[in-house]
Design a protein that fits this description.
3 strands; single chain; mainly alpha
Amino acid sequence: MKAIVYDQVKDVDIAPFAALIGEDIISFILENAPRKVATRVCKAIEHFAGAEKLTGIDEEMGVIRLIAGEEELVVAIFEWLKLNDKIFPEHKDFVGKFKNHVVKLAFYPVLRQFRFVIGDMLTDGITLDGLEDVLSFSVKPVVEGKQIRLALCKENGEELIRTDPFAIDISHGELRGQDTVPVIMKHMIGIVAEQLGLTLKQYVLARAEFRNHMLYATDGGSVSLGDDYGDLCAQFAETYHDLLWALAVAMGGKPPSKQWGIASQFIAVYRLALIEAGVLRADNTVVEQVSDG
């Protein structure tokens, strides 16, 4: 069996991802990403487009491709973190396990939780405490050369200021910085329990095992796709959208500190999720018996 290596970055059609996040953002990623990042993004595009073509033909394999594409985007983010470890909070404990499906498929549930926390800011704008009826600003992301910035605009569209997306720190009441991490984690655990009736560990492990259920038979028999394939494709489109934005922000922004801001909060919550899933120990050392696949 012979594999043929081709230039993904040169030949890939960006249209599927341009439809998700805009041509300016996917172009920004591919034009500025080093090859080890860009090739993962391009492979994710191929999986996403290939999965759509399998509708009504081999939908189980389509799901496998959708999952593989999600994992490729997570690895693209990991590769960027590794190349820029001087500016991002410590991450060597989990990016070194990038072949582990649990590690890759635990990433998006945490990212989605952060989207819940800050998503309203991008969709509904922001106000200042005590001035809700006087001042209201909309927020929009913009490409600025090799940077991604958040533009703060007045109701008439006039732009007031641009800021780095990483210059955000999630607060909760009087809590700031790392003190909010347990609160974010508790909220995520509560949502998973309420919506799915699962613990966070059960949910993360189920995500990682889903691909195996589609691929392999067990002593009890085989599993077929029980969800509507169109609905699954729509869910993954949202997943890809969020992961692509996370990569774009990582590439176009710079955390103000390794210890402060949304990047450090995200990595802290993600690390706790991996501890819950049994990939890391409480001291952040790797649990080696978790198999890679």
